[in-house]
Predict the structure.
Amino acid sequence: MPYVSIKGKKLKLLIDEERIKSRVKELATSIETDMGESFIAVGLLKGSFIFLADLIRHINLPVKVDFMWVSSYGSKTISEGHIRILRDLSMDIENQKVLLVDDILDTGYTLKEIKQILMLRKPKVLKTCVLLDKYERRKVDVEVDYTGFRVPDAFLVGYGLDWDEEGRNLRGIYAVEGL
Ligand code: 5GP
Ligand code: MG
Ligand code: MG
């Protein structure tokens, strides 16, 4: 293994590269079938960028890509309970099919608020996809159309997810031990 610690904390492998790969393919197949025609994939920065990149390469439809950058944990590991848009979409989504993609669903505030904001722009369809679901920590009800893995309540890094900007390049998903 290339490295198994960040800032002196040990990382425990939770989901390896191969499992991620095959699950991402399954999700892509469902999304392709359900969408059935061209759509805009909207990734939430920064955490979703690797997942989104892998996902869309398994979808055989015309896909446009856009990103939205919303406030995240930063160097803290507790959610503020609300989100802030740091950079908005570059595209107009009115009357378009949209797939909103995020790395992980935790309290649910982020996805719920972004969904509401995007719905005001009148997309033809708005579907949501998250790679990971920390279901035990949900604070608000939010419907998600596609979920990769249900995961335990731990702080996770890798495959795009960071700990204070480190660890995004890890190929698997890891739990930070002793936080
Ligand atoms: P929520 O608004 O659902 O509480 O939080 C969702 C956002 O929090 C995710 O998009 C992600 O940026 C961040 N987040 C939640 N849990 C984790 C985690 O275990 N690891 C990392 N790196 N980010 C997380
Ligand atoms: Mg995020
Ligand atoms: Mg982060």
